[in-house]
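tl;dr need the bound structure. longer version: we got a ligand (zinc ion) that a collaborator sent over and nobodys looked at where it sits. i said id run it. heres the input, straight from their email, havent touched it
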Amino acid sequence: MKKKLTAVIYWLVIAGVVGLSFGAGFLYRVWNDSAVAFRQARGNLLVAGLRGSEPVSATRIYDCYGNQLATAFVENRYPVTLDQVSPWVIRGFIATEDRNFYSHGGVDLQGISRSMVHNLRTGDRHGGSTITQQLSRGLFLVQDQTFQRKLQEAFIAMEIERQFSKDEIMEMYLNQIYFGSGAYGIEAAARTYFGGISAAELTLSQSAMLVRMVKNPSGFNPLQNPDRCLTQRNLALYMMADYGVITEQQKQETSELPLGVDVHRYELEQDWDYFTEYVRQYLVGRYGWSAVYEQGLEVYTTLDPFMQESARLAIDSILTLKEPVWDSLTGTWLEDPERLGYESSWARWQAVEDTTSGAPDYIQGALVAIDPTTGYIKAMVGGRDFQDSEFNRAVQSRRQPGSSFKPFFYAEAIEQGWSPGSVILDQPVVIDLNPGSWRPRNYDHEFHGMVTLREALARSFNVSAVRVGNAVGIETGAARATAMGISSRLPIVHSLPLGSCMANPLEMARAYIPFATGGLARNSTAILKVEDRYGNLLESNEQPDPGRRVLSVTGAYLMNSMLQSILREGTATGAHWYWGGPFAGREAGGKTGTTSDYADAWFVGFTPDLVASVWVGYDNHVIRMRLQNGRGQSGSSIALPIWNGFMRRVFADADPSTAPEFPGPVPGEVEEVVICRVTGQLANAACAEHARSELFWTGTAPTVTCELHTDSTGFEADTTLGEFTDFDRTFGQGGV
Ligand SMILES: [Zn+2]
């Protein structure tokens, strides 16, 4: 028995010695690490804007005229000295965070034991960290909660106490802590939450609120959680009274005050919008976080501020007109048949809210404008309100482009030798899908017999587009779209010519560049040049992308002609009364897009010097754009008006004499003949109103005169396109 006990003691002693030496080694290592970390961090402490006025260098972003758009720097921080801070703040922090601040040596053993007792009693997890420890945590260390980390914090806190006075420590602390809403330090917090006042002006109530906010900057935020924020403010007042820095009466009176928060957006993200955020993300991705936020870059962008403002106004004015109006007096939606249905926009939203938590429920729009001659992004609006939703629909969204995708397949057909006057059969087609089959339908649920390529595209016949896709090959058409500028991966499916893929407004605008440039594709960029803070050039696009040929000169000319027809006679004829003519002497072309059930509406259009794409829809794909009178909203009814409003404003003061020749001189390979649009054969007098002038690749124009309209008395019966169901012959340049 005794022997056994001796053995136990023996082993305990061994374990103790081993444990102690391990413990000592561990402590020594932590101490050593901390000393190294402190030596490194001490420099930061002095230069990082805490003790001096020299902040880390900011990155500045400029528009195309060299005017500053935005500044990116490490934090929204305005260093102040202790005498520039309201005494209520200092008393509040000492009362709530560290009552022995002026007596402890960095670590407060009394405070730790008090908080341990408190934690055991209440189940809370208060740290009991002193203000000096909190300062060391924020300054030097990754914010994890390991035991080793806590020891390091303590060591560094003691080192800080040896090197700085209590006032210096308090000052650094007040300049460093985070108050939420992007506000670092007490001065930024005062400016942000209380209408731009300084830290010296903070009242007792305001100070008490801020003192508690550092505990949980988002949870106790007066914007998101005003009730919790008020409770916490009053808790701070209670603790200050308990500590004796305010009287019981001050506590009572101040507790009854409202928070009085007056948030200054100016101090939040005043100069950021979708474009500058897009640039910032690009810079961080390419140069790294530190280069952008600490070393400072000079970033000259391609943005035209007037176009940006025009884009924002165009989206805002049209969508505001379409939106249902909520009457807060009666608590109901005002009925207006010409506005979007509230069932689809609101009630439906409620039903699916949990799947897209936090996303705005109102109709959204995005616009990207690019100069096709350079690839420069001149305007980019990614939504209706950046403050409300930073999701950039111009580049981050993935939506079906619908019919606005068709031109890529038509371009492929043209390059394969078809002409705008080639006729195609708009008749039911059955696609074998193995398993199953698919019968594409037209928007109007009708079939239109023989139609020219131009008419099929202008009137956006789906069946014709599917036949074109089958004829040219889905894979070749997809490759053409990619070469032209679509960067999203394209599914090789029979419905691809109808735009059953995913794309964003930026790539749609980019992929239309060749239609405006006579066949040259260009990369899009927002960056003119980037310099470091010493003026060294890091990147430059001042010599714009010379472009790469993706369409032949003639092919691009023929496509341009067809896309112009859309604005004159096709799905986009609404353009006429919206715009009333060319923009400052510039003809325009473009294509609408509407996806099934009105989830997405598009218009992508161009003049020789500006390509712009517009998307409209709800963030939630489930919600459809339908007016209260039941009408669905299409590309031509809701996206085209935005495009028109934008273009009209941009070119309002432009000089028509500066308009580039468009689409340029007629290439030698084009011939113009008058055809019968019903048969695609050469027109004769009997074809009457079916005759029209059309463009062909030289040598491919029809040679046979119309065999249908031979009797000048017989054409009347032939005006109904639906009767020509038996046409499957090949006319002129190939029917499908
Ligand atoms: Zn005819």
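gonna send this back to them w/ a short note. The CA atoms of residues 144 and 251 lie 36 Å apart.
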